[in-house]
Design brief:
single chain; 768 residues; binds zinc ion; 6-stranded antiparallel beta sheet; 7-stranded mixed beta sheet; alpha+beta; GMP Synthetase, Chain A, domain 3; 23% strand; Beta-Lactamase
Length: 768
């Protein structure tokens, strides 16, 4: 009895293994037939099938007849990716699909072996090269259903043993292929039968069919769009909804962006309420074709209406969510109840009445439309403010071309709106009246100011410049003076070294500190942050500014008026008679101001100012060239901070990537290899650089907000000696770097390496 059992046990490992295989095969067969979609078969069941073979890897391809390709899906991390292979003899799987033959190869790299199978057959090494996987054995078989090719199953690399796959394994592969054939056929038939706009979500396993059905019910009950319900309740992302819609409608999915340019010409004759009801709106005209967003691009009736109203068949339809279409319409027509929409305003203007002839001496026609023009200008200023613009550019063109209005946001200009040419004269006049400029003077530049009260009651100040341009028209540029908050010094993105050195020199009782850089590099913001740091009741702080952009409690701030002779130098002289501890003077643009500044800092005052120089060392040479006494200046100087603003990468969508060696080398070169060494960053596989992506939050630009780059030169004893000797920029820079100064470019590179910004932005502001 005992012997008998023993004999059975020792005789049966082969049998047992066969039984195990049959059981596993049955199990996987059931699971294949139960699969909800193709993705489950290709991805989720893959390991189960691979278990039947003593092999390393397995891929199931599905035929895409239309494209004459086979494709498969795989997971890269958590992301689903697709691989596609042409049906041709250029790859093993492609060959199997092309010829319907079973292929069993012992070494994919053995060209002779491949040639025996077919003269043309080649092995595509690109995948191996990319992944580092070294293919050896390949067993590939076609997947049939009746006489229709459904796909290819491919098994790679036997475990342990040499030689090719065994006859038994081939048999097993053919059995699996047969099961797959039925399953893939059923999946395809299933998909053909049910084609809704959310197939993509089902096919990609993002939602179960029952849940989709339930969502339909719920959306109907709640009277909300199905998409909204899917996003809210079933946590489907807007991006996936977009992919599903793109897949279904074969067009682009557009998401709402408040940076969209108002398509004045296109919506001039369309009624807002009608568009809101019908759920479509034109966005722009590109190469003669009008882009329209609509909730259902397949709706023939709607397309007919759209083509009639826009009077063209040259229309490109894009799909968007109903809520986004409404938002676009609101953006184009109206913002809040207290504000008028651009189109409302333009609609109320009588075109004929406002018509201005090309004769430049014709006076503007002043009519009751004035109040409408007023609303138009108010709307522009309000919108600019709401979008965080720093400048408004109004650019009339000659002839009958539109007036373009552009806003500068975060340092870059972009089109906000174009207004028909017939309004240009009235619009420019209105702005000139608001800013107390002479409307009869059109051939000379003028500048003025507007104090503007927003609907919220808030007051905004704008500096206005009018400039005569080609063709007898006038451009107007308005700078919105930021009623800025004062930023704490800790939030200025100073490096540790810069922060501690800067706080050290600004706590000295006397001396001179300069902040330098081009216009718009944030010098005023920095100086106010510095003053805030040392603004205490026991200190008297006088500032002379042009204009006063930021007000700060505790400072005595003075607006200079060069027109009446009250310039920076005059302000400084009066401060010195008014018992100051600290003096901030807007700019040292002349010898006089600089000289008084140096003297003031030598007589026990802490003096701050700015200059339009490019770098810290250049500033020293510039002042000496101006005629400032080197000995006095060397004595007075505490430090110079050069500054730039760079756009920062949008946190939501920035993409880490592994840089090439060349790219890395280039960064090291620009940083200076001997200094880069100290950063302790080496090229290795984990090294990540960052680049912009593009998402809703950043308006598809990949950038959001700005940050400072800094170069802080400290006037050490050695630097002072070099100043006294009137040394060159080169010598000063080398000494400062030797003592720990990072240049603007270096600071920028460090901030890029940390992923705050990227090298493109840094180069843009640092390299002349
Ligand atoms: Zn973004």
């Amino acid at each position: 009895m005992n012997g008998h059992t023993k004999a059975q046990a020792s005789a049966s490992p082969v049998l047992e293994e066969k039984l195990r295989l049959r059981k596993a095969l049955l199990d996987i067969t059931n699971r294949i037939h139960a699969a909800q979609n193709i993705k489950q078969i290709l991805v989720d069941l893959k390991d189960g099938i691979l278990n039947l073979f003593n092999a390393h890897s397995l891929t199931i391809y599905v035929v895409d007849i239309l494209r004459h390709e086979i494709y498969s899906l795989f997971l890269a991390g958590t992301q689903l990716k697709e691989i596609r292979v042409p049906i041709s003899n250029q790859s093993i799987a492609g060959f199997v699909a092309n010829t319907g033959r079973v292929v069993n190869i012992s070494d994919a790299y053995n060209k002779e072996e491949l040639k025996i199978i077919d003269r043309e057959l080649s092995f595509d090494q690109s995948w191996d090269n990319k992944s580092g996987f070294r293919t050896k054995q390949i067993l590939a078989a076609p997947v049939w259903y009746n006489n229709q090719l459904m796909g290819v199953i491919q098994i790679l690399n036997k475990k342990g043993t040499e030689g090719s796959f065994t006859e038994e394994e081939i048999g097993l592969a053919l059995e699996i292929a047969e099961v797959l054939g039925v399953a893939l056929y059923n999946q395809q038939r299933f998909e053909r039968r049910r084609k809704t706009r959310f197939d993509y979500l089902i096919n990609h396993d993002l939602i179960k069919e029952e849940d989709l059905d339930r969502a339909w019910e719920e959306a109907r009950e709640q009277k909300e769009p199905l998409e909204a319900c899917l996003m809210r309740k079933y946590k489907i992302t807007k991006e996936d909804i977009g992919r599903a819609l793109e897949d279904f409608y074969h067009c682009r999915f557009i998401q709402y962006s408040d940076k969209a340019v108002i398509p004045g010409d296109l919506i001039k004759n369309l009624k807002k309420d009608f568009l809101r009801r019908e759920l479509w709106v034109p966005l722009e005209k590109v190469d003669g074709k009008i882009h329209v967003v609509v909730d259902d691009p397949n709706n023939i009736l709607k397309r007919d209406t759209i083509e009639n109203l826009l009077k063209t068949k040259q229309i490109i339809y894009n799909v968007a969510l109903a809520e986004d279409i409404i938002k676009f319409i609101n953006l184009f027509y109206l913002t809040t109840d207290t504000e008028y929409s651009f189109m409302d305003i333009l609609g109320r203007l009588d075109d004929d009445e406002m018509m201005v002839t090309d004769d430049e001496d014709t006076d503007e026609i002043v009519t009751e439309s004035d109040s409408v023009i007023m609303q138009l200008v108010n709307k522009i200023i309000n919108d600019a403010y709401n979008r965080g613009a720093s400048d408004i550019h109004i650019e009339p063109n000659i002839g009958k071309k539109n007036v373009e209005i552009r806003f500068r946001v975060d340092g870059d200009c972009s089109l906000y709106q174009s207004v028909p040419f017939s309004y240009r004269a009235a619009m420019i006049s209105r702005i000139k009246i608001m800013s107390n400029l002479d409307i009869t003077v059109k051939r000379l530049p003028q500048d003025g100011k507007i104090k503007f009260r927003r609907p919220t009651g808030e007051e905004v100040e704008l500096r206005v410049a009018s400039i005569p341009t080609q063709g007898g028209v006038e451009d107007v540029v308005m700078r919105i003076l930021a009623k800025g908050e004062i930023m704490p010094l800790e939030n200025m993105a100073l490096s540790n070294r810069n922060y501690s050195e800067l706080t050290n020199i600004i706590s000295k009782p006397y001396g001179m500190i300069l902040c330098v850089g081009p216009t718009g590099s944030g010098k005023t913001t920095t100086l106010h942050a510095v003053l805030r740091h040392i603004n205490r009741p026991d200190r008297k702080i006088w500032t002379a500014e042009d204009p006063v952009e930021i007000t700060q409690y505790g400072l005595r701030q003075v607006q200079v008026q060069p027109k009446i002779g009250f310039d920076f130098a005059a302000a400084m002289r009066s401060f010195l008679r008014a018992d100051p501890d600290i003096i901030m003077v807007g700019e040292m643009r002349d010898f006089e101001t600089a000289k008084i500044g140096v003297e003031a800092s030598l007589t026990g005052h802490l003096v701050f100012s700015t200059l339009h120089t490019n770098s810290a060392p250049e500033t020293i040479v510039r002042l000496l060239d101006m005629g400032i006494d080197p000995l006095n200046f060397a004595d007075a100087l505490l430090g110079i901070l050069a500054q730039r603003l760079v756009r920062t990468l949008c946190d939501k969508c920035k993409e880490p990537y592994h840089p090439s060696k060349d790219e890395f080398r280039e960064i090291v070169e620009s940083y200076g290899p001997e200094y880069f060494e100290k950063l302790n960053i080496r090229y290795n596989n984990d090294l990540k650089f960052y680049r912009p992506g593009g998402c809703d939050i950043c308006g598809r630009t990949g950038y959001r907000g700005r940050m400072g780059l800094h170069e802080l030169l400290i006037a050490t004893d050695e630097i002072k000696r070099l100043i006294q000797k009137h040394e060159t920029v080169e010598v000063l820079r080398n000494k400062a770097m030797e003592q720990g100064m990072t240049t603007l470019l270096q600071d920028g590179i460090i901030k890029s390496l940390k992923g705050f910004t990227d090298f493109v932005q840094v180069r843009r502001v640092c390299i002349k």
